[in-house]
Amino acid sequence: MFLWGKMTSLIKTRAGSIALGKIHPEDDALELMYFGSRGMTRRADEYLATLDLSRVHHRILYTIARGDGMTVSDLLAVLSVSKQALHRPMKQLVEQNYVAISRDPARHRFKILNLTARGKKVEEKASEFERQVMKRAFAKVGEAGQRAWKAVMAEAATEL
Predict the structure, then answer these.
(1) Cα 110–chain centre separation
(2) What pLDDT is stored for residue 18 in this prediction?
(3) pTM above 0.85?
């Protein structure tokens, strides 16, 4: 929980409170982005941990679920990661039957990625935890707040 002061933020932790000083006027927005993201993903991460999976596994599952038969190259481009960074988590997802890899019949060198039934179930449940946080937040800030948040995020995404 944030308690905003003029030059500090008071961050509530399990052990107490920690004051973070402000160095720049935009620091409060950066803190909200960081801690808001952690708040949004906390329950999903806890669920994934019960399956020995992590945030990176969920990013892969989420992207494949929406990629409609994407290739490994497509996944690398969307996630903006190297083959080396993708190798280990992808190997785990394939070995644990969350992701299926098949060859593209028209382009044999291309590997097509799809979620298995097990992968779809995990992706849906983890993403639903995150959607619920967003639904509650948007309900509290109203339609104008939701539009403003999306506008800020869309503008930040232009930096990619």
Answers:
(1) 26
(2) 80
(3) yes
Whether pLDDT at 127 is above 70: yes
Q: Which residues contact 11 (CB under 8 A, 6 or more apart)?
A: 1, 2, 17, 18, 19, 20, 31, 35
In DSSP notation, the chain reads: -EEE-SSEEEEEETTEEEEEE-SSTTHHHHHHHHHHHHHHHHHHHHHHHHTT--HHHHHHHHHHHHHSS-BHHHHHHHHT--HHHHHHHHHHHHHTTSEEEEE-SSSTTPEEEEE-HHHHHHHHHHHHHHHHHHHHHHHHHHHHHHHHHHHHHHHHHTT-
pLDDT at 107: 86
Q: Which numeric CATH code is attached to 2-133?
A: 1.10.10.10
Question: What is the predicted pLDDT for the residue at 28?
Answer: 87
pLDDT tens readout for residues 15-58: 777 887 888 888 889 988 998 999 999 999 999 999 999 999 99
Domain ranges in the chain? 2-133
